[in-house]
Specification:
The protein is mainly beta and 156 residues long. The chain contains 1 helix and 11 strands, in the order E-E-E-E-E-E-E-E-H-E-E-E. The chain is globular.
Length: 156
């Protein structure tokens, strides 16, 4: 697909209630942390990055990850995966965007708007696994996927 058939849009991910003091970052194209930041007092963390959208729609870009023929998402890395080797946490969150309505993509492209989603950091996603009573293998449940709909927001 020719780049002339693609539109560049900005996506904004707002992480509400991040775990205080734990590093969060986008995952770069080479699987390394990108734009790491941490919440000092519980304030929201904001990540903005460009994607290219082609006919279909087809999503492309350095942070865009694929799973199967349709699913497209970005990773938010937490703790050790975000570049803090001393953190007891090591997690990733998937933020899906393959199901953004074409009308919303068109509106964002025509109005120069940013497409935004707000996710709440799950209470256990950035904390070390907790051993459950009665389980000898130390297994724990964790939340590492989000599929919140994205909404167009004005550029700031």
């Amino acid at each position: 697909m020719a780049k002339t058939d693609q539109t560049v849009l900005d996506l904004r991910i707002v992480i509400e209630n991040p775990v205080i003091g734990v590093l969060h970052s986008l995952q770069a194209g080479d699987d390394t942390p990108l734009d790491p930041k941490r919440s000092r007092e519980g304030e929201a963390l904001v990540f903005v990055f460009p994607i290219r959208v082609g006919p279909g729609p087809k999503f492309l870009g350095h942070q865009v990850r694929r799973e199967g023929p349709v699913r497209r998402f970005v990773y938010i890395r937490i703790g050790q995966l975000a570049g803090d080797p001393s953190s007891p946490c090591s997690r990733r969150m998937k933020i899906d965007f393959h199901d953004i309505a074409p009308e919303l993509l068109d509106r964002a492209a025509n109005e120069g708007a940013v497409i935004e989603t707000t996710v709440s950091a799950p209470t256990r996603a950035a904390r070390p696994p907790v051993r459950r009573r009665g389980r000898r293998d130390g297994a724990s449940s964790r939340v590492d996927s989000f599929g919140d709909p994205l909404a167009a927001a004005p550029r700031n």
